[in-house]
Structure to design on (119 residues):
């Protein structure tokens, strides 16, 4: 692999990780305003937050195995696209029932593009 290609790969992976980190930070920072604007009750607030780790836990082993089978590059690019699409859908959601379903897709995309450090 050439030196230029290595830097390109590093930049691509870093951009994906930055996208995930910023999105997570924004959610926790904006949660009070978000739940106020959406008029979410306590149960809906919990789903906005907890749909994310629930799906992550379920996909953790399967995403690693799928990456081994179809290739980590394809898995990364698919995950990045899924993550971006779900983030856009969730960003413009008009109500909690519309806001919560993209969270699992968002997490699914994140799991595909950002494997755990021990994998």
């Amino acid at each position: 692999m050439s030196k230029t290609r290595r830097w390109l790969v590093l930049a691509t992976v870093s951009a994906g990780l930055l996208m995930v980190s910023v999105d997570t930070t924004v959610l926790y920072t904006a949660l009070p305003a978000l739940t106020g604007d959406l008029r979410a009750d306590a149960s809906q607030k919990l789903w906005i937050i907890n749909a994310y780790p629930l799906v992550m836990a379920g996909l953790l082993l399967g995403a690693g195995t799928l990456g081994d089978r179809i290739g980590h590059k394809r898995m990364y690019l698919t995950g990045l696209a899924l993550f971006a699409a779900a983030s856009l859908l969730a960003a413009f959601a008009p109500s909690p029932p519309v806001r919560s379903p993209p969270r699992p897709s968002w997490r699914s995309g994140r799991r595909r593009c950002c494997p755990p450090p021990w994998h």
About this structure: Residues 92 and 99 are 8 Å apart (CA to CA). The longest helix spans residues 3-38. Residues 20-113 form one domain.
